[in-house]
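Proteins fold reproducibly. Take a sample protein:
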Amino acid sequence: MATIIALGKKGKKQGFKTGDKIVSFDGELFVDVLDIAFYDSLESFFCVVERKGKLKTIKVKKKAEDSLGIEIDEELTPARCKNKCTFCFVDQMPKNMRSALYVKDDDYRFSFISGSYITLTNVTESDIERILRLKLSPLYISVHAMDDKVRYSLVKNPATLKLREIMQRLSDGGIKMHTQLVIVPGVNDGAVLEDSIEKLHQIENVLSVAVVPVGLTKHREGLEKISPIDKEGAKKIIEQTERLYKKFGGFCYAADELYMKAGKKIPEYDYYQDFPQIENGVGLVREFLESVSYSLDTEPSVSINKKVCMLTGVSFYPVLKETAKLIEKKTGLSLDVFAVKNKFFGETVTVTGLVTATDIDGQAPRGYDFYTVPSNMLKEFSTVFLDNVSLKDLSERLGAPIIVLDETGKDLISKLSELI
């Protein structure tokens, strides 16, 4: 049971009171805040609460769009991952960091709420029934391979052998799914990759597949040896994915990082359709370029007499460098772009989202009026970098304010224009 600590006007009108302990909705025992969210979207239901030691049944009748405004005293605690993936990024973290950084999550609730990828190896029968009953859709599934033996070799959990069965059941129940294949050279590329995309396309409610390169840090002591994807390997993966993209009219997409590794041009905007995998680094570069181009065409020209250093990762540097030239013409800014090498995780890690404040502090040139960082360098919903250094602390070390820009580039011109 959870205790109601706050209510909206609609909730009070229906008969709820702060201090009520929620027991059940429509005969289903209360589990967590997702129950509240689901039933709050309905027009009518019964809720049993405990009030002053006695059970009370509240019959709710309202418009579907009217929220009861129920807030409870419990927060979701993510379920822990039970896999031993050969490429697990948490296992490749440096030692002696905050304990929270070593926590491995694998929770269907957070997949629904925030789009985090899950393997479905720890879901129970009651979890599956709940997903279907509450219509928790879409979910984001880490598949890696549709061949059971190959997937087991990567995930190291026998529960993964039921993945296709569970996905089919979810699909039959109307649950939409986005999927990803993390590619380990020599394991799930080539024919295995093609087979995986083909079989995922056979499941009706699988909406998209992201093909992403395995991420390897320098901290792999005692872990299974994995080779990084090289330029030729990236080209082959892109060729396969694009061929199947044409066959299915979309559906599967290679990550931006693969195009950069291969030295190939990022596809045009329409290629990504509704950008279903942008949070997974698929189409983010194209979205950035389009957003900046639109802003340059629509924002008024300004003259800003400031020196600005834009900080980025190694892989995104060429894109941002070309963009900076266009921005300089529009704003009059003295705009430098600096690629931060990843000493923290190892220089094989080139993506911007894994750049730490420690590396910025150790490498970034000084003497600028402002610095910029993209929002994906910071942990979600915070102003702290992955190495637990705050934006404020880094700003003090650099000796200048830091402007956080949306990673999609949507606010780049407007934020820079504010420097006048």
Notes: The two ends are 54 Å apart (CA to CA). The chain has a mean pLDDT of 93.
